[in-house]
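We both want to read discrete structure tokens more fluently, so let's practise on a single case. Would you supply a protein for us yourself, any chain you care to pick? Would you write everything just below, so we can both look at the same thing?
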Amino acid sequence: MAAVKRKPLLSWTVIAPILGMAVLAAVWGRELGAFWVTVAAVALVATVLAAVHHAEVVAHRVGEPYGSLVLAVAVTVIEVALIVTVMAGGGEESSTLARDTVFAAVMITTNGIVGIALLVGALKYGMTLFNPEGSGAALATVATLATLGLVLPTFTTSESGPEYSTSQLVFAALAALVLYGLFVFNQTGRHRDFFLPVTAEGVVEDEEHADPPSTRTALLSLAMLLVALVGVVGLAKAESPAIKAGVLAAGFPASSVGVAIALLVLLPESIAAVRAASRERIQTSINLGYGSAMASIGLTIPVIAVASFFMDGPLLLGLGSTEIVLLGLTIVVSVLTIVPGRATRLQGGVHLVLLAAYLFLAINP
């Protein structure tokens, strides 16, 4: 007798996000003891793994580069909502929260996600291949957005601190929206082939070899992906007091708590990028990395600009000198990595060292 095929609704990838939301409801707004901290951590890991699975199902159904775009935008939208919620609560650190979160996302994506994908791909296949036209366009957009949103406020003179005046902030927000919109139009329109994976023979692959999932399965995965992402961000927020206590106990500055939470929120994209690299689809990994950085700046700055008009206190966007040096070095190294259209484990290692330098200086400024 043939085995009965398990229904999708009984899959652990469906159960995990629902349980994650149940745990989130149980711990939200409470001071957590050791038991609930452990339960929330386990639920967080399971929800992250489920989010990666559903993102890959959706990506397989719609094809690249739409799949990478879905995950990047979904994570960023929830990330922006979390920033606005925390800023609305006020506090001394709220004025720099947007800047710190966006910069952490940029460094983690451009050096961490891209770097580990290149390293994994090179270790498995010897040489990683990707499309320099699409990757270069994405990198140029990230560099421009980061400079307009995070660097220039440090050097403008209309305000005394590292912040934009009202007119400058409006301009930066509109510029971010225009740039992000142009890139998405370019990525999904006439030049879509620039963002598709490349084979060892240099031929663009349009789809996976396996049959795509059904519409019903893809819609279920899309719904579960959104639930899982909400759970990831919410559980990361619920875990933040425990993370902060651990950070302070270790003697690290309080600002490094935001870095730890950013690492948790970006886990789904990081795991998805590594899986794509292990299947020799480095372009997908780069799409995830640069797309996430782009969405983080292009969507966060406009929303925060609008929210700042209804909140007390300044909105400090300008980076310090150390962060500007790290960002500049990251852009230069990324250009040298992307231009040839291929990379070895060396380039992956260089990017990971840059990420390590950022993380080290975040906890030991």
Notes: Residues 186 and 192 are 7 Å apart (CA to CA).
